[in-house]
Amino acid sequence: MPAICLYFQVHQPFRTRVYDFIQIGNQHQYFDEEMNKHFIDRVAENCYLPANKLMLELITKYGRDFSIAFSITGTTLDQLEKWRPDVIKSFQQLSKTGQVEWLSETAAHSLSALYNRKEFRRQVKEHDAQIERLFGYKPRTFRNTELLFSNDLVNELVELGYNQLLVPSTERLLGIKSPNHVYKSPMHNKTLCLPKNSSLTAELTRWFGEPDHPGYPLTATKFAEKLMVLQEAPECVNLFMDYETIGEHKKAASGIFDFFRELPEAILALPDYHFLTPDEVFKKFSPAGKYDVPYPVTWSYPTYDLSYITGSDIQQEAINRLYDLAPRIYEKNDPVLLQDWSRLQSTDHFFYMTPRFEERGERNHFSPFASAYDAYNNFLNILIDLELRTK
Amino acid sequence: MSSSLQAFSGKRVLMLGWEFPPVHSGGLGVACYGLARALRSVIELTFVVPRTTEASVLEGVTLVGLNHLDKKIQITRPELSRLEGSLPELEYYQLSAVASDSVRAGYLAQAGLERLPIAELMDDQEVYGSKLLQKVSAYAEAVVAKYGDHFEFDLIHAHDWLTYLAGVRLKKKTGKPLVVHVHALETDRAGKEVRNTMYFVERLGLQMADKVIAVSEYTKQTVHELYGIREDKIVAIHNGIDPQPVFRHEHHVPEKIVAFIGRLTHQKGPFYLLETAEKVIRQYPHVRFVIAGTGDKMKEMIDWTAYKGLSRNFLFTGFINREKVEQLLAVADVYFMPSVSEPFGLTALEAAQFGVPCVISKQSGVAEILKYAIKADYFDTTTFATEIVKLLTDDNYRKQVAGDIGHQLEDMKWDDAALRVVRVYKDFLIN
């Protein structure tokens, strides 16, 4: 009985305002309320509301045969609670069906797992508490920012109570293995890993609606056919992607809503196929082997590492300086200071600083800044102020 | 101003410029404004710039923005190819050879531009920007169209290479004397060996001028040596600075502040700045270099600070407006200008006005007049560093240097500079 495992990542950062040197020491509002509200409104209208509505329709229609998993970052939830309680409500409505699994992660979509373990534990607990408060759900499966994972993290996660993990996959890591199974970590006998099926997910996240891609236009039926020709009999096909794929990264006009509307029917028509949440997958299938991840890997295309986030000297300088503040932030014991510091840890801020796009003569479409160096300068001004507040 | 200047009544000067506050990006605009303001009581001035806004006002001066030009005036063809006859044969050949590559390519690549109304081209938010050569050419065309036939004036005064083509053509058409005013040279920006379009346009303007005003002895020498202009045709007139309200603010960062204000280009010595900074930081870590400005060397400079792990001692502001420049000067402890080649360096005077001691390179015009500023060769980063540390650590020394420089400014008003400019006019206007 093979399963399709759908997990959607929901994330919006607190984007920073233009913070120039005059403001240093004078005012500590780092985030651009107006811009953030604009983005939240836009993604709510393009994706969250219509996609939630669609998911609810599908759950109502297919009952126990259709289920999904969400991971929503704390930075997103905080902004939705403030500006779009209607979106929170629609997620809660989905949650009430019992067909949705909520995943654990860091509250700020941060790389604290690599830079400060104490902060990592704090953010995971903060996030889990928020999920429990809003959805009455205690997460049982963990996914890290950018799906970042390495063997190194396993013991930390075991101590936090997590031995069900969603992890990235690359050809190099998989070797001759297939991503379509549950695996065991070589670090801990009871820790299970569920690798993302990168190529099938990319059919949606990257290639959907691209006229030059073979098989365009992709339909649910054509997608189901791809499952039938998988070389090795799959147990679970793990499609992990940004929720914003539906309606924001891929606009409604691309037909992405229709694709998902028709997906359950096409999948359920295949012999024995059904939908399971990660938690159900972990319970149902025994590990097919060990999944050894000796170095940090992420789901970010095309490098599957952190090179777009911490790959340059300026990105490293910025992130190291931010985490250098940790002892003093904890010492201050000031909730506002802690929250500011935490929100500045979102990987987005460092992603805006990657020089990769400009080197290729492209623009970083996710960045509100004109250039990587503008993003860096602005972040460092904020950092100077934050450093002053911890003195 | 002296009463002998009454002889000027009724005389009109057509000034051709590129920057005029608030539409400006650097020292050129500040200098043109200062000069125009001091001259307006002596002589009738019309000042033509590519673009004006509602806020562009100077009482007593007719300010003309070509972005308001009649829409019917259109670009017809590349200006630089029309200079036939205005240059010795060999030089025309050189100029058109260079010009044909850059200008014509720029033009023809953009089909349809030839029919573009000039006003539209000039209405560009960027003072320089990517269409600069087209704008320079169109500026000349517009000035000749507007003033070549219908306007009575007695002398043309053109500021920097951007307006030299216009000045030269207008002189040829009207026979009026041409004064060109050198605020900066391509050889400062791009190095002594440069021989590009800008260089040849500059040389054309300098050769065709009846008189050349250079903003310093330093620039006068450069015009003579690198452009082959007779020394007796060049007069050095330093820029001035008028008293203005200044203020001091408390530091908002705990470190001592060394301010750099200028474009981040080779000319401004960015890597001598970094080398000096590193030496200063080694001796006195409680310092922050605030780098205000942007340019093609910014990324490399920022990378360097990150690579060295010295980002805590720097702050890059990007381009900042007038108001923020003042805010920076109001908190700065030292002003540092290690320019490799600086015709003048007006910001050093502004810094001095704000009571900030200046550490400047000897290769700058302003070094000729700031007797008490700390000076060293632009490459002498050890001396720069030693002096900066001394200023940062010895309060009495800092106050003394700042005070000495400040007193000297009282003798540098724009009226004095204007008087010397008027003496240049006199040779042509009073027979």
Protein architecture, described:
The complex is a heterodimer of chains A (391) and B (431). Chain A is of the alpha/beta class and 391 residues long. Chain A has two domains: 3-284, 7-stranded beta/alpha barrel (Alpha-Beta Barrel), CATH 3.20.110; 308-389. In chain A, 46% of the residues lie in helices and 9% in strands. Chain A is built from 18 helices and nine strands. In chain A, strands 1, 2, 3, 8 and 9 form a five-stranded parallel sheet that branches. Chain A has a four-stranded mixed sheet with strand order 4-5-7-6, covered by helices on one side. The model of chain A has no long low-confidence stretch (mean pLDDT 96). Chain B has 431 residues and is an alpha/beta fold. Chain B folds into two domains: 3-240 and 414-429, 3-Layer(aba) Sandwich (Rossmann fold); 256-409, Rossmann fold. In chain B, 42% of the residues lie in helices and 14% in strands. Chain B has helices at residues 27-39, 89-109, 118-122, 132-147, 164-174, 186-190, 197-208, 217-227, 270-283, 298-307, 322-329, 346-353, 366-369, 381-393, 395-409, 414-429; strands spanning 12-16, 44-49, 61-65, 155-159, 178-182, 211-214, 234-236, 256-261, 287-292, 314-318, 334-337, 358-361, 374-376. Chain B has a seven-stranded parallel sheet, with helices on both faces. In chain B, α4 runs parallel beside α5 (164-174). Chain B starts with 11 loop residues before the first strand and ends with a helix. Mean pLDDT of chain B is 88; it is low at 77-113. Classes of the chains: A alpha/beta (391), B alpha/beta (431). The interface between A and B is medium-sized, with 23 and 22 residues.
Short summary:
The complex is a heterodimer of chains A (391) and B (431). Chain A has 391 residues and is of the alpha/beta class. Chain A has helices at 33-62, 74-83, 85-96, 112-115, 117-135, 154-159, 171-174, 198-205, 220-228, 256-268, 278-284, 307-310, 313-324, 326-332, 335-343, 347-351, 356-359, 372-389; strands at 3-10, 68-72, 100-102, 142-143, 164-167, 183-184, 192-195, 236-242, 274-275.
